[in-house]
Amino acid sequence: MADKKALLTIEDKQLELPVYSGTLGPDVIDVRSLTGNGHFTYDPGFVSTASCESKITFIDGDKGILLHRGYPIEQLAEQSDYLETCYLLIYGELPSKEDKEHFEKTIMGHTMIHEQMVDLFSGFRRDAHPMAVMCGVVGALSAFYHDSLDITNERHREICAYRLISKMPTMAAMTYKYSIGQPFVYPRNDLSYGGNFLHMMFATPCEDYEVNPVLARAMDRIFLLHADHEQNASTSTVRLAGSSGANPFACIAAGIAALWGPAHGGANEAVLKMLDEIGDEKNIDEFIAKAKDKNDPFRLMGFGHRVYKNFDPRAKVMKETCDEVLGELGLADDPMLKIAKRLEQIALEDDYFVSKKLYPNVDFYSGIILKALGIPVEMFTVIFATGRTPGWIAHWHEMISGDYRIGRPRQLYTGEAKRDFVAVSDR
Ligand code: SDX
């Protein structure tokens, strides 16, 4: 029940709107009664709109706080691992030792995809963008795994969740191997989640590939830092697709499509392309000026965020991981890293960025780590999608297992009023 009320006066009418308080964050005003009073709310881009109630992730943008089921991202990055975080996001609690082992065994026991799905890849051009392939192959999962697609069945929802978390790295690595004309590498269930991914990406039948534990841990942490992020554009897409009753594989494919944009998950790829275009520290000032120029569409990729008006807590951990990986690989003097660090320092001192509270976000350093790991730029958003899969699933499951309605926003119509058709002979 609402414990507070908001009063809205429209012409001679006064409306009482219920106000709800959450555990953390701003109160929300329930505007559902407005339609009955002949009005809609208007909020393009949903800057001020809470689309749902959720218990999964909380972000405080001003304080740079990110909690997954109440646990700070810094503690999870430091003390947990990706599969344990997947379990936490989906089930709401950290697993017991036995549950953790069972979950890991189950996930690592379903890493292969249906052998017939291998033929799907040959339908794509080798130079297709990996995200185009991922949209297609993930969407096709419902053509191969239709034995458990009853979304009203809790066990079916769990099976779909496990299949997606298990198989995303396999499909991601296959997308890469296909693009370079190398044979697919089957998953290795004796390796860690991050180690198995690196093995599928870089092993070949010609020689043994030894997984570097530092790099495997870094890969695991990159997946973990991308695992969930409240009602972002791709998660909201998954929820909207799911609200129509679409199967979970189709919903995740929709989330992958939304993530692809450079304003969202495509930013890590765009950061590397931007650093490449800057090329040298002496060119930084020119690009900072372009980013500040209202008439120039260029934006400093990896900076700014709809919610964070302080440091993105993930960016801080990503920066530490970046130093670890480049140190391990002897790339501490990587010129691109130098440009990135100089760019960050200037942006954090420049009044334009300070006044608009534009801080580095999760994408700013992730691309540098991925490039150091030998992952091509076009694969960066595929990595993001793989990491974000448990978050998408957790939100889809939270919605489907509760009361929900099909999402159907309204609009402010500014088109033509009614007019009669004119025959072409009279035009
Ligand atoms: C992700 O939502 C999530 O949680 C997303 C994400 C997740 O985990 O799911 O965190 C992942 O998408 C991170 C963001 C990655 N995108 C980028 O790094 C692309 C560069 N950033 C911008 O495109 C932008 O900052 C957004 C898209 C991230 C945020 O856009 P908003 O909230 O709509 O902000 P805005 O465009 O209204 O910008 C406010 C002002 C504008 O200037 P004014 O009109 O007020 O004069 O800041 C300016 C913008 O021009 N601005 C920038 C800028 N970002 C915003 N100017 C230069 N460079 C930038 N990067």
Q: What would you note in describing this structure?
A:
- The protein has 427 residues and is mainly α.
- Helices cover 49% and strands 6% of the residues.
- Strands 1-2-3 form a three-stranded antiparallel sheet, with no helix packed on it. It has a three-stranded antiparallel sheet with strand order 4-5-6.
- A hairpin with a 2-residue loop joins strand 5 and strand 6 (71-72).
- Helix 7 packs across helix 8 (213-225).
- The longest helix is centred in the middle third of the chain and has 27 residues, at 154-180.
- The protein is globular, with a radius of gyration of 23 Å.
- The mean pLDDT is 95.
- The site of s-citryldethia Coenzyme A (SDX) has 21 residues, from helix 16.
Number-wise, the strands total 6
Bound compounds, each kind once, are: s-citryldethia Coenzyme A
Mean pLDDT equals 95
Largest sheet: 3 strands, antiparallel
Task: Identify the strand order in the major beta sheet.
Answer: 1-2-3
Q: Class by helix and strand content?
A: mainly alpha
Measured as a percent range, the helix fraction is 40-55%
Strand content: 5-15%
Radius of gyration: 23 Å
Number of helical stretches of at least 4 residues: 17
Report the span from N to C terminus.
59 Å
> Order of SSEs, N→C?
EEEEEEHHHHHHHHHHHHHHHHH
In the predicted model, the low-confidence regions spanning at least 5 consecutive residues are none
Principal-axis shape equals globular
